[in-house]
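Researcher: Excuse me, tokens okay?
***
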Amino acid sequence: MPDLTFNFFQHWYPISPIEDLDPARPTSVVLLGQRVVVWQSRSSNRYCVFRDQCPHRLAPLGEGRVDEKTGHLMCSYHGWQFDAQGVCTQIPQAEDPDLVTKNREHYCVTALPTQEANGLLWVWLDADSAAIAHAQPLPLSPQIDASRGFVWSSMVRDLEYDWQTLVENVADPAHVPFAHHGVQGNRDRAKPLPLQIVESTQERIEAISEGGFKTHITFTPPCHLEYAISLGGDRQVGLVTYCIPVSPGKSRIVAQFPRNFAQQLHRWTPRWWNHLAVRNSVLDGDMILLHYQERELQQRSQTQSWKTAYKLPTSADRLVIEFRRWIDQ
């Protein structure tokens, strides 16, 4: 029997586009039910990610500040400070000036492995498996590559539905003409969308659609779901999503939108315009649908499987079926 164990904590997750982080102040983020704090060390100009609690009295370091003199992260409760490795460097209440150096390991904050790549900040949530983290490649998209003529924009948004619901929705291109009519689709032009599953394993699910533009869709568990759409000739447009489990009933999407044409138009278009005109309108378009769908599926799961709760008769549903099978395994 193959080993089907899956440790969600031993994978790389993008927290946010780096351009959305504030280097002057710490930011609290929740991933897989755990609060972490993101901050930039003045000494390295790189972002660090710690467990979001001070070892003194467990206050949230996300409410702290980056000290102007030392460049270290300061807890706002009692002023304890920590360097980029999570080592405590200052305890203002200490009568003995050697208290910190004598007990350095006892007063550390848990620092998590991080990387910066493709304009995103990545974190590995299992602090005890740093060696595994550094040996495992990031789930990067080949479409986020300026050397191949691609340009892209990025976004991040927290969503009020579960990670399973988010992945399932992104893996379902057939809903676009209806849920996103007038934004990215047109319900009057909807047609059959045949999907062919070419690979379905624990490590990867891949589908191809020949309905209209040829599209490759890949899901690399637990969070990377990507579309590569050929528009003819050498022109290509894509959708790169990272579907992040936040906590039960909550998720986060980090998305990138690459293309290898109209580079000048990309430079002229403000990022905020895409957010207002398209990106958030798309996420808003199916919000209420997903809320009630998720609630109904949870209620039915008490007495039946998704296989009977859902009716999935067309090939357009094949990627959703394979994702649900992956979860079952």
Observations:
- The mean pLDDT is 94.
- Residues 271-285 form the longest helix (15 residues).
- The first strand starts at residue 12 and ends at 17.
